[in-house]
Amino acid sequence: AQSVAQPEDQVNVAEGNPLTVKCTYSVSGNPYLFWYVQYPNRGLQFLLKYITGDNLVKGSYGFEAEFNKSQTSFHLKKPSALVSDSALYFCAVRDGWGNTDKLIFGTGTRLQVFP
Amino acid sequence: ETGVTQTPRHLVMGMTNKKSLKCEQHLGHNAMYWYKQSAKKPLELMFVYNFKEQTENNSVPSRFSPECPNSSHLFLHLHTLQPEDSALYLCASSQDRITSQSSYNEQFFGPGTRLTVL
């Protein structure tokens, strides 16, 4: 079965510094990977996805993620963190397609950006 | 706003109560989803409807009963819940279930209903 792991419950970073939120995956076949963000009292918002093509994927709000097949990783990155980036981040992998298509989510990583 | 609304936003109920959660999407989508979000656990997919037909029931206990009267509305009927059912229940919608391996229809989430079972 497809799965993703987010090894860090929380990541703390100072505003202006680069940030990385880690995600590793385990899939059979080609991985289809996603990042979602959840702000307080809000639903999940789509950030970016990797399906095929360039290993570096750019998404919303200045975020990007790097797909690394040899390390089975899909880490989320941003060159310069903002306090407003503080939120809960979820990595996900697609499992199946067609009527069996669904997303398998990780446990989430809370990002705290300090002024 | 994401175009997906959920009511109520907060609900407290006893174990013998019957209540319903409502989800409405204004995006013209055909697929709708119920997820359960518990602290420090992965988001759990509960049910999926595609064109009003249930296509996924992820081994959810029968005390949760979904209803999808049309493509815009999704309900989750609750009865005789347990305290461990306390969680954030998220609704999502997408264009439809994907039709090819190389495509993806983004899921749009509502703000959730915070459920507390006493």
Q: Please tell me what the overall shape of chain B is.
A: globular
Beta strand % of chain A: over 45%
End-to-end Cα distance of chain B, whole Å, is 31 Å
Average pLDDT taken over every residue of chain A: 91
Q: Averaging pLDDT over every residue of chain B, what do you get?
A: 88
What is the rounded distance between the termini of chain A?
A: 41 Å
Fraction of residues of chain A in helices? under 10%
Query: SSE order of chain A, as H and E?
Result: EEEEEEEEEEEE
Low-confidence stretches of chain A: none
Radius of gyration of chain B: 14 Å
Number of helices of chain B: 0
Please give the largest β-sheet of chain A: 6 strands, mixed
Strand and helix order of chain B: EEEEEEEEEEE
- Strand content of chain B is over 45%
| Rg on CA atoms of chain A, Å | 14 Å
Largest interface (CB within 8 Å) is between: A-B, 27 and 29 residues
Q: Using DSSP, what is the number of strands of chain A?
A: 12
- The tally of beta strands of chain B, per DSSP, is 11
| Helix/strand class of chain A | mainly beta
**Mind describing the biggest β-sheet of chain B?**
7 strands, mixed
Sequence-ordered SSE layout with sheet pairings:
The complex is a heterodimer of chains A (115) and B (118).
Chain A: E1 3-5, E2 10-14, E3 19-21, E4 24-26, E5 33-38, E6 44-50, E7 56-58, E8 64-68, E9 73-78, E10 87-95, E11 102-105, E12 109-114
Parallel strand pairs in A: 2-12
Antiparallel strand pairs in A: 1-4, 3-9, 5-6, 5-10, 7-8, 8-9, 10-11, 10-12
Chain B: E1 4-7, E2 10-13, E3 18-25, E4 31-37, E5 44-50, E6 53-57, E7 64-70, E8 73-79, E9 87-94, E10 108-109, E11 113-117
Parallel strand pairs in B: 2-11
Antiparallel strand pairs in B: 1-3, 3-8, 4-5, 4-9, 5-6, 7-8, 9-10, 9-11
